[in-house]
Inverse folding.
């Protein structure tokens, strides 16, 4: 999928509310496409949060280990975003794994590249940060609270 095709898909996602064509072009300039196969893990519990992802094709499962089992937190499809907690807590570890449920394509937006939008495309940066914060907040109350606290308390207690 090209960035222009993805742009039309993600316009339906609230994370990108209020973005102009120029804002979306700035985002596209820092988003890196990546193909992922079933069985690959895109995000690992415990890894440093350093990017968020736009799912352009396929599907992914967001899950966390719990009591030796898999606790599924969400199933996401094209146009959806994951890994957004990187912008809430950039030094904290990931709290969930993300694995494709079918061959998929994602666009990775690295934290450092995204931060550069603050000066190069400030309206895009402000809108996306505001919208990502709302998404992360909404997901944090729907996700198991003990899972979130367990990982963040562990992360910050080792500093």
């Amino acid at each position: 999928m090209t960035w222009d095709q993805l742009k039309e898909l993600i316009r339906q996602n609230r994370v990108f509310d209020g973005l102009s064509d120029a804002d979306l072009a700035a985002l596209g300039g820092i988003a890196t496409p990546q193909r992922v196969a079933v069985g690959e893990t895109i995000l690992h519990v415990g890894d440093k949060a350093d990017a968020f992802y736009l799912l352009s094709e396929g599907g992914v499962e967001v899950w966390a280990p719990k009591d030796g089992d898999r606790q599924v937190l969400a199933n996401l499809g094209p146009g959806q975003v994951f890994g957004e907690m990187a912008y809430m807590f950039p030094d904290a570890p990931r709290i969930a794994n993300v694995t494709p449920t079918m061959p998929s394509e994602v666009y990775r937006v690295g934290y450092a590249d995204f931060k550069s939008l603050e000066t190069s495309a400030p309206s895009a940066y402000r809108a996306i940060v505001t919208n990502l914060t709302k998404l992360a907040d909404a997901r944090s109350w729907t996700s198991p609270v003990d899972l979130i606290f367990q990982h963040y308390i562990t992360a910050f207690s080792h500093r």
About this structure: The longest strand covers residues 69-76. Residues 63 and 73 are 5 Å apart (CA to CA).
